[in-house]
């Protein structure tokens, strides 16, 4: 079998729905299954790096240096080992990167060029945590990846906003079937609102088989992030929920 590096964006134009959480947990979940994973943090808040326990003091070089210091560092010099089988490519100066991307004519090719060095590093999956807005960086990410994982918060406003990602893909002339997994997040069994919105999602995606089992709302998930631990190191209940999601990704 030939080697292929699967490229996945975790994206949703809505903020605070769990993109960074999902990125980190699926990255570690896949790593624990023995896959070689690179998580690229392309959100300005550095949440996924933080959820893995890293602060800016730990970064030597970042994604920014791939663009601006071409002579001084290779992609390998920008990558941090985060866990066994799990590496992290952090970012800084995200606004500056975005402005630079505005001046690039082939935004659809920019990441293929900047990340060309990854092919020889033999990752099974590259997972990109994205910021919430429509930005040039996110345009570039969507053109680069094969698939999209879409976390959706199980509440009315988020569920109603699902159409936004389809519009975004249409504007970029990308295939909506890129969305390979939709993850209902922060599901709360105790509220009717949560149940109704989960039902809506099931209905909405009933023909496509891309909806995963929900991730429940759990304080321990937030705590894990603050401590720089993944659920696989901190909370069996959430870990089991994310394991189901990981199984879906492996397919
Ligand atoms: N299932 C959950 N249960 C409880 N808390 C959660 C859950 N999922 C995410 N959170 C918490 O909600 C907050 C937002 O999550 P996260 O940072 O992953 O969202 P995001 O979509 O990446 O946000 P942003 O748009 O700001 O990048 C975090 O504090 C996180 O710990
Ligand atoms: Mg985030």
UniProtKB/TrEMBL annotation:
Residues 5-172 form the AAA domain. InterPro entries: AAA_dom, DNA_Partitioning_ATPase, P-loop_NTPase. Pfam families: AAA_31. CDD domains: ParAB_family. PANTHER family: P-LOOP CONTAINING NUCLEOSIDE TRIPHOSPHATE HYDROLASE (PTHR13696), PARA FAMILY PROTEIN CT_582 (PTHR13696:SF52). This is Cobyrinic acid ac-diamide synthase. It comes from Pseudobacteroides cellulosolvens ATCC 35603 = DSM 2933. The lineage of its organism: Bacteria, Bacillati, Bacillota, Clostridia, Eubacteriales.
């Amino acid at each position: 079998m030939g080697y292929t590096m699967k490229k996945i964006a975790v994206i949703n134009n809505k903020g605070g729905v769990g993109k960074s959480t999902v990125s980190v947990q699926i990255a570690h979940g896949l790593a624990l299954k023995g896959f070689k994973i690179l998580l690229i943090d392309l959100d300005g808040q550095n949440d996924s790096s933080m959820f893995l326990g890293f602060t800016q003091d730990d970064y030597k070089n970042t994604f920014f240096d791939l663009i601006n210091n071409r002579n001084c560092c290779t992609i390998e010099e920008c990558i941090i080992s985060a866990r066994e089988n799990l590496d992290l490519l952090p970012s800084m100066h995200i606004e500056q990167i975005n402005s630079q991307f505005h001046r690039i004519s082939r935004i659809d090719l920019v990441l293929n060029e900047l990340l060309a060095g990854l092919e020889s590093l033999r990752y099974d999956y590259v997972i990109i945590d994205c910021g919430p807005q429509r930005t040039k960086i996110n345009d570039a990410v969507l053109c680069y990846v094969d698939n999209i994982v879409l976390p959706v918060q199980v509440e009315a406003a988020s569920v109603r906003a699902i159409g936004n990602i389809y519009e975004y893909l249409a504007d970029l002339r990308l295939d909506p079937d890129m969305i390979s997994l939709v993850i209902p997040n922060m599901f709360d069994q105790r509220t009717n609102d949560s149940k109704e919105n989960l039902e809506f999602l099931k209905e909405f995606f009933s023909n496509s088989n891309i909806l995963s089992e929900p991730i429940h709302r759990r304080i321990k998930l937030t705590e894990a992030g603050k401590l720089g631990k993944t659920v696989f190191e901190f909370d069996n209940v959430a870990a089991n929920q994310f394991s189901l999601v990981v199984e879906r990704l492996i397919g």
